[in-house]
Design goal:
Mean pLDDT: 86
Radius of gyration: 19 Å
Strand order of the largest sheet: 1-2
Largest sheet: 2 strands, antiparallel
Strand content: under 5%
Structural class: mainly alpha
Number of strands: 2
Length: 229
């Protein structure tokens, strides 16, 4: 495991780390792609890095297994879960359902402060030159839009679903689609939200996520052609 995960682990508080802090640090490292699919997660090594016993580590890994981030394999123990493109596309269908519902609830509750903060974030996104940053800005904007829905469980479900999707789509989609089209749609989403155009905003959000599905399906077709060649 690299320096990044070690830094995340140290930030959880070092000695005496709880299962929740171990879980959160590992989930973040998996979601960001720092811990790659198939990587073996050795309990003794993690316990040493977290400055704790193996008991909190074991509990954290079981929680991550329930969330789908970790798989326990015979003779290998815990490994970072992998998914096929078809499974990611299915998760994007779930993303459409959850996020469109959250946006429908959020728009009537949005304040000028919410809208202004979202616009400031988009301005920072415009200035970001590195495709590796675009996925982070993209998700921060979406979370800002949904936050006023005032439904903590719905927001937690959205976060968990996106954690799975992002590790397989973030870099691929950012490079394939660029920044111009997503940003144009983000600004339009913001304007619909400001004007209280709920159904127009929800329809645009759905199309926005469907475009990610199309990009993945295109990547899948090209990958298949490559193996046939």
């Amino acid at each position: 495991m690299g320096v990044g995960i070690a830094a995340k682990i140290r930030s959880t508080g070092g000695h005496g780390s709880t299962p929740d802090s171990v879980r959160d640090a590992l989930r973040l490292a998996i979601s960001s792609g720092e811990l790659a699919p198939g990587l073996q997660l050795r309990q003794d090594e993690l316990a040493e890095r977290f400055g704790t016993s193996r008991i909190p580590v074991r509990e954290a890994l079981r929680q991550l297994e329930a969330e789908g981030f970790v798989t326990f394999l015979p003779n290998r123990g815990a490994v970072v879960s992998d998914m096929s493109i078809d499974e990611v596309i299915e998760l994007l269908e779930i993303r459409i359902a959850l996020e469109c519902h959250a946006l429908r609830l959020a728009i009537p509750a949005m304040s000028e402060i919410d809208l202004d903060e979202a616009r400031k974030l988009l301005s920072s996104y415009d200035k970001a030159p590195d495709p590796e940053q675009w996925g982070t800005f993209n998700w921060r904007f979406h979370k800002m839009l949904y936050a006023p829905c005032n439904s903590p469980r719905l927001l937690a479900m959205i976060d968990a679903n996106y954690g799975h999707v992002s590790r397989f789509t973030r870099a691929l989609v950012s490079r394939a689609t660029g920044k111009e089209r997503p940003q144009r749609e983000h600004y339009q989403l913001l304007e619909f939200s400001r004007d209280g155009e709920v159904e127009k905003a929800v329809r645009l959000l759905r199309d926005h996520i469907v475009q990610t599905q199309k990009t993945l399906k295109s990547a899948q077709r090209h990958a298949l052609r490559g193996t046939e060649g």
